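Task card 7
Instruction: Convert sequence to structure tokens.
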Amino acid sequence: MSNYKDLKLDKFKDKTDITDSGTQGTKVAVGSTAQRGSTTGEFRFNSTTGKFEGYDGTSFVSITANPTISSIDDTEVDSAAGGNQTFVITGTNFSTGDVASFLGNDATEITASTTTIDSATQITAVIAKSSFVNSKEPYDVKIKKLTQTIGILENQINVDNAPTWTTSSGNLGTIQDDDTGTHFTLAASDAEGDTIAYTETGATNISGAGLALNSSTGAISGDPTDVGSSTTVSFTGRATAGSKTADRAFNIIITPPPSLLIGSTATNFVDSGATASKTTSGYETVTVTADMSVYVDLWGAGGGAPVSCDNASHGSAGGMAYGQITLLAGTTYVILVGLGGMEGSQSLTKFPDNGEHTNSMNARGHGGGSTRFGLYTQSGFNITSSSGDYNNTSAVYQLIAGAGSGGAVYAAWSSPVGGYGGGTSGAAGGGYYHADGSSSPGGGASQSSGGSGGTGGRSTAGTSGAKYSGGNSVSAAGGGGYYGGGGACAYYAQGGGGSGFLNTGGLLSNTGFQTTSVGGTDYYVSPVGTRSNKPSTAGNGGLCSVSSGQAGHGAVIFTKV
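Output:
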């Protein structure tokens, strides 16, 4: 070992370089930082820093061992998650002044915002997650010392972002509880191209509503559980790609299928051709749960028949009216289905406007009642089930099918028989005219006046029809309608038919009438309808061979367009 004594004796004065042949080491100057010299090339051991150092003419440079990196605690970064990523780096030869950085696969370098030297074997580095770019993975980990020496651990950090939802949060849409198939599809994307799995998290509301979520495609399908009213099903969808997840809140509204309600009886109106009807006489409100376009077909009631078939006429048939309308949810409509007439000895409870046989004889018949459709709310009043409202002459209906008149004994003896409910006008009664001139038929109603009452000398003349009222008679009574038919006089004649009505300036389109025809058997058989959907005996006149001479009631059929 060389020592100061040798140097002092100038034992090396002839040497260009100091050569030390000893094995223990060469002793150099030792001193604190404050004791540093200023001669270029000086080499010493700094007792303050504990490191060898040399002066390069500008500053002292420490001689330190290269850092080594053995591991990093987290090898994935979600660059889209926001905030900072903290890495704990393990290795050797870490010291104050070391700086951590990360090298992309294109050699670009991003430096940690803070590097904390926990110990000679551990560093904590913090950096913004957004600094990492997916296309530059994998990243190397680098530690650089003040002496410019570095340590690198290659291919350590990958960017693994959570999947990104492409389906907007909130309401996916509305379905009916009888819908089937695929209703909606959730969709998300993943920057790394990982396969995405779709699930519900936090609850089982999807399956609880009778639906299923396909984990591979995101499709929501199935037949929803029936609901009584609009129901919102809320759920949290989760998209999973690799180890990353993204949650999003959604909801689906499930409604009952659109229904048409006649009174409180609801009929699902989902498919074109769905129908709802009323074939018994009486008053009902009509509402819908959703706007819908429907056909409306009406048949006026038939007139009653005498019980004897001795050349007697049957009751005359009601007419048929039709149109198309868009029924609106939140709006109330009304229907009045006419009461079928019967033979005159039967007590008559008019509905809504039958002409009445007033002599209580079974040889004649009561008239039938018209069938009407309109809005519930009118100007200044509502069309309620009170006759003071529904027969109010100020009431405006959208459609009216006129009713047929009552029949009479001997009326079919000769001459054509009419009396059927009409379109723009009802048919005059017709029938047998006795030589003494003592019998005459009731007149058919028009769009502006009721049918005239029959006149003659043998019995009291029939009364004329009026708006929403058939004419009365001691013989065959008139049918009800927009304007009612007149009542007949004496044994041998038919009452007049009521007129129909189309509110062409109202809410309807595709409107029209059908009527039967005079003569033969047609006068007592009501029309089949434009859709050939006549309900059984609706609107048919009563038959003299049938007990009580009961005629067919009117009818209303709604058909979804």
